[in-house]
Design goal:
- The protein has 1 helix and 13 strands.
- With 217 residues, it is mainly beta.
- The chain has 2 domains: 174 residues, Sandwich (Jelly Rolls), CATH 2.60.120; 33 residues.
- The chain is globular.
- The relative contact order is 0.20.
- The N terminus and C terminus are likely disordered.
């Protein structure tokens, strides 16, 4: 499981300059999947607003599992209703450069044996990446996931397996990346105010030089 040590000052504002864990949850509790979305215990960069982990309408909590987000109802093929969901939105004045999504998973009763990751940027049409059911890393260091200033919903599709009655559980997850301030673009009026004194100073220098040449002659 992912452990939280000293995110502390690094998460204190949206100006963090290094890649780090920006949203994570070790998923601890009794029957976390009873909640849609589950937010207890999550760690979130203060420059972000997140949804927690949720589930699609085709999935149902299973039994009374502890310390995992466990559900049943997965289809063998990817289904638009069968997924885990995470929405991440930068605060005003902040942007996100994503680097990766990592997770640990478990399956039971011959449940899903493959994982596919997609996003709302293309209405969940294309795969960002795939991983084995046990866990892995999905790389998000793609151009479309850099300098992000709008909310993105990521969906985690578990599929395959021998039995549609089987289940799949997410044990923990973490999004990594950099949250930073958006660089301010000077207003045209302020740029003009800066340019006028510079131009005036340049003209004065030119006049002094011409005067010096005439005196020397």
């Amino acid at each position: 499981m992912f452990k939280v040590y000293a995110l502390g000052i690094a998460l204190a504002w949206c100006g963090a300059a290094r890649a780090d864990v920006i949203f994570m949850n070790d998923i601890v509790g009794i029957s976390p999947a009873d909640q849609n979305s589950f937010t207890s215990g999550q760690v979130v960069h203060t420059g972000l607003v997140v949804s927690g982990i949720g589930r699609g309408p085709g999935l149902s909590p299973t039994g009374n599992p502890q310390n995992s987000y466990a559900v049943t109802g997965w289809s063998r093929d990817i289904s638009p209703d069968d997924y885990f969901a995470f929405t991440i939105a930068p605060n005003d004045g902040c942007k996100v450069d994503y680097s990766s999504f990592s997770f640990t998973g478990d399956r039971f009763r011959f449940g899903p044996d493959a994982v596919t990751f997609r996003s709302s940027l293309d209405s969940f049409g294309a795969d960002i990446g795939t991983a084995p059911w046990q866990g892995g890393v999905i790389h998000l260091d793609l151009p479309e996931f850099q300098d992000v200033v709008a909310p993105i919903e990521f969906r985690f599709y578990a599929h395959g397996g021998a039995q549609t009655t089987g289940g799949y559980a997410l044990m923990d997850f973490a999004f990594s990346g950099t949250v930073s301030e958006i660089s301010a673009v000077p207003e045209p009026s302020s740029m003009l105010l800066t340019f006028i004194p510079l131009a005036a100073g340049f003209r004065c220098m030119c006049r002094r030089r011409r005067a010096a040449h005439r005196t020397g002659a």
